[in-house]
Each structure stands twice: as structure tokens, then as C-alpha cells.
Amino acid sequence: MTKLLKLEYYKNLNYRPFKIFTILYFAILIALLFIGLVDFDLFGGTVNLKEQGIYNFPEIWNFTTWIVGLLKIFLGLIIVFSICQEFGDRMFKQNTIDGLSRKEFIGSKLLTISIFTIISTVIVFAITMFLGYQYSTITESAKVVQEMFFIGNYFVKLFTFFCFLMFLSILLRKSVFVFLSLFVLWILEGIIQSIALYVKSQHHTGAQMVEKAQNTFSFTKLMPLESMSSLIPNPMMRLKAAQILGGKYEFHYPTESLIACLVWCAIFIFGSYWILRKKDW
């Protein structure tokens, strides 16, 4: 393991985009977690997310993990560029000539993915605890840990997404093709979801459609991107303003999405290894 870590370190040490995007990601991540302390001018009025309750326990776990989850593409850029560069510069071929096995190559990438995911998760956890105890109106132990599972979901979401990008990078070997494929899949999943929702919600009112979508199982939740997204639902309905307007927030733990993510992780990892073994670079 130490050998693989050193190999990844030296590979990426002199790769400028790797350092730039890494610094950018963690800087923006930390800044976003403090977004609730800033006042926003909206429709002629001032909105402060802290006053809307985003830092209250237990809701804070949902808000922080959802907000920083939007940044995962920044860290994804690092992984994609790093892997695609190795194939573009024929570094992978040289490493295999020097004795690096395909299993070790996958292992080194998984180590990098794991380290990024762990660091990101620890930062989110630490800052969430700080902000919660600093600004939450509720600090009872039971409330503090009530929705802490969102941190675990965040870890799984990030790790699955990065494994997916690793798979696409090894399959396509060009960063532009990787992101184009990601965009196309996102569009396709959106179309499939819309069709499934339309079929399921015929003869229902708007409110019934939303309730049916939230409370019934759909095969669309098993799709790669959707299963990751379902782990941390959009928390905007938990804002005080949304509740005043009659918004209703209901959450059922997405067990099927969690299982789907773990299965997709295994598929992406073994798929990446299978492609490396079958193709001669």
C-alpha cells in the first residue's frame, strides 16, 4: 500500500491541474459550508439561511452534505484528468513495463479516491459539528446524532461517483469523452425518470404526484446517478420559509439506493479491472 501511495504522490506532484483543482475544491467546500452566515438580497428582501434553520440540529446534516455534494464534480475533474493523462502520456504502459500490475494500478487509483473521499468527509463532519454547536438552537445529544447518517451517505455518494469516473476514464481514456458520456447519461436518466413519473402519476393531482414519487419505490432510483442523488435528498423543503408556505418534508431512508450504490461500486471497480486486462495498452 505504501508503494502505491508513493507512486500516486509522485505522479500527481508535478501535475499542475491536480494541485490547482485540489486546492480549489477544498477552498470552495469550506466556503460553501459557511454560506448560511451571508445575507442574500432576493426579490427586494434579505434572506439569511442561518435564520432559515440550515444550521439547526438535526437538519444541518442534510443541508451541509447536500450543499457540498454539488461540488463533487470538482474533485471528479482531478481524478479524470489524472487517469486520462496516464493513458495519453503512455505512462500506464511504461509503468506496466516497469512491473506495475493492472491490479496494483486499480489499487493505486482506489487509494487516491478513498483518501480524497475520507478527507472531504472528515472536513464536512468537523465543520458541521462546529457550525451546529455554534448556531443551532437545539444542541441535545439525541438531536445532534439523529441524522448523522447523512455523513455516511455522503461518503458512499462521493466514493461511488469517483469509482464511476474512474471506470469511464479507463474505458474512454479521453477526458472530453468522459464528461460528454457523463452528461449524456444524466440527460438519459432524466428522460427515463420523467417517463416513469408520468406513467405512475396519471390521473393524480400535482400534490398526489409529488407524494407518490416520494413514498413509492421506482426502478429509476437504482440507476447510477439517481441512486447517488437519492442518498441525500434536496433539503430546501426544510427551510422555515418553505414550511410557512405549506411545504411538507418527508424522508424515508433510501435503503434501495444505498444498496444500488454499493453494487454499482463493485461493478465499476471490477469493470475497470476487466477493461485493463482485456485491452493491450
Task: Spell out the blueprint of helices and strands.
Elements (H helix, E strand, L loop, with lengths): L1 H12 L2 H18 L5 E4 L2 E4 L10 H11 L2 H17 L2 H7 L4 H34 L5 H6 L2 H24 L2 H26 L5 H10 L8 H7 L9 H5 L10 H24 L3
Antiparallel strand pairs: 1-2
Protein name: ABC transporter permease
Keywords: Membrane, Transmembrane, Transmembrane helix
Pfam families: ABC2_membrane_2
Q: Explain this structure to me?
A:
The chain has 281 residues and is an all-alpha fold. It has one domain (2-278). It is 72% helix and 3% strand. It has helices at 2-13, 16-33, 59-69, 72-88, 91-97, 102-135, 141-146, 149-172, 175-200, 206-215, 224-230, 240-244, 255-278, and strands at residues 39-42, 45-48. The radius of gyration is 21 Å and the shape is globular. It starts with a helix and ends with a helix. The mean pLDDT is 82. This is ABC transporter permease. The chain crosses the membrane at residues 20-40, 60-84, 110-131, 151-172, 179-199, 257-276. It comes from Chryseobacterium tagetis. Keywords: Membrane, Transmembrane, Transmembrane helix.
